[in-house]
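Key idea: predict the complex, not the pieces.
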Amino acid sequence: EVQLVESGGGLVKPGESLRLSCAASGFTFSSYSMNWVRQAPGKGLEWVSIISSTSSSYIFYADSVKGRFTISRDNAKNSLYLQMNSLRAEDTAVYYCARDLMGAAPSWGQGTLVTVSS
Amino acid sequence: QSVLTQPPSVSATPGQRVTISCSGSSSNIGNNYVSWYQQLPGTAPKLLIYDNNKRPSGIPDRFSGSKSGTSATLGITGLQTGDEADYYCVTWDSSLSAVVFGGGTKLTVL
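Result:
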């Protein structure tokens, strides 16, 4: 069974940093590009970033996080990461990791809540 | 403001058919595949349609997708109360080099 489990969310102050992790199991992690998608309370889905299967092919970010967030992966550990720096109130959201977002068999984690507040 | 434009809400009665539109441009819908997701309250999104009009296994044929030019449409027939949810279109935008979601449409089954 495919599983994606996010962790690392919590309450931080504006300007602080946080690192999210996503542990993958049940599939060949190194064969898939991976995404981070977020959803602010009561709002719609917002794509955050994508990383290719081997990291070296492509990495893209939404304009709203470019220069502040860094996506990375460790295929040996079947893990995806999102380093979030200079956090703002508007970054408050549930963060999902997702595989194969626009393919035939995507998978999403259950999400981890990040709250940025003073 | 989303790159892809969806109506904020639609409503219909049980058994009826409803369509949800998703309008974009040549850099996104016009030249890339569209997927559609359903999100029930408090849950992760669930794929309904991929590659414009294909249904993953397990998705009933009450759900259909189509694309024409720079717009895509999700159709749902035989509406059920369990279809009440938020629906999102999503595609790749070649100019932005980004995945783009529509703003979402809340379906109410009266």
